Amino acid sequence: MASYLVTGSSRGLGLALVSRLASLPKAEVASIIATARQDNPHQLKEIVNASSGRIEFVKLDVTDKTSVEEAVKSVEHKLKGKGLDYLINNAGVMDWSKDGLESMDNLNEIFNTNVTAVHLVSRAFLPLLRKGEKKTVINISTTLGSIARAKVYAQGRSPAYKISKAALNMMTVQYAQEYAGEGFTFLAVSPGWLRTDLGSSYADLPVETGAEKVIDIMQKTTPEQNGKFVNIHVPGWEEAEGNNQYPGGEVPW
């Protein structure tokens, strides 16, 4: 009966993750903390209200240190002395620079949300994670952050996003090395190109598929995978034509 916290739960993958977790048996998922910057946004509120108390909302702006500290206190109160098992750092933003690097003027902003904020949240929740049984942190990344595959995605005009996710992958490794001795597992997961506001309607997969596969990876991960960067597995997409394949396993760095 594990506890879960998801950042950026108001829409897209975050909302789908919360919905998917709520659909699983209570023996697997005892409690879900759904967080977002807005004060209980409409779609999330509907899911929370229908959960019979299993999902609880906590306001959290991942880029604001004070908001993060207040959220930790709120989550600690809601867990009633128990630890947090899983933290999913999902909140993130993506840029579009039509002229590529020349027009990239938002690197600090993107980096602050996609990297620095993940550090703020992970660091702040470490005490509660230490009290949990699973001690697992999932950082939502992307194959666009793979340096080895940079040429494949060269035409994508989102340089700040790519740079920030490459940095997130390295930060995942740093956390993995630092806390391996305490039994933690830190994992970077690429959820696939999903049909969300961020991914667009042209994306490969429904957001529900991405959420299902991320949770499957998360629940099956072991300390032996600590610090890895992994892809989802979607049957039929193992050798798909085009830039994206979803065979599972590790992503080239």
UniProtKB/TrEMBL annotation:
GO molecular function: oxidoreductase activity
Top-level taxonomy: Eukaryota, Fungi, Dikarya, Ascomycota, Pezizomycotina
Similarity comment: Belongs to the short-chain dehydrogenases/reductases (SDR) family.
Name this polypeptide is given: Short-chain dehydrogenase/reductase SDR
Species assigned in the record: Penicillium cinerascens
Gene Ontology cellular component terms for the protein in this record: cytoplasm
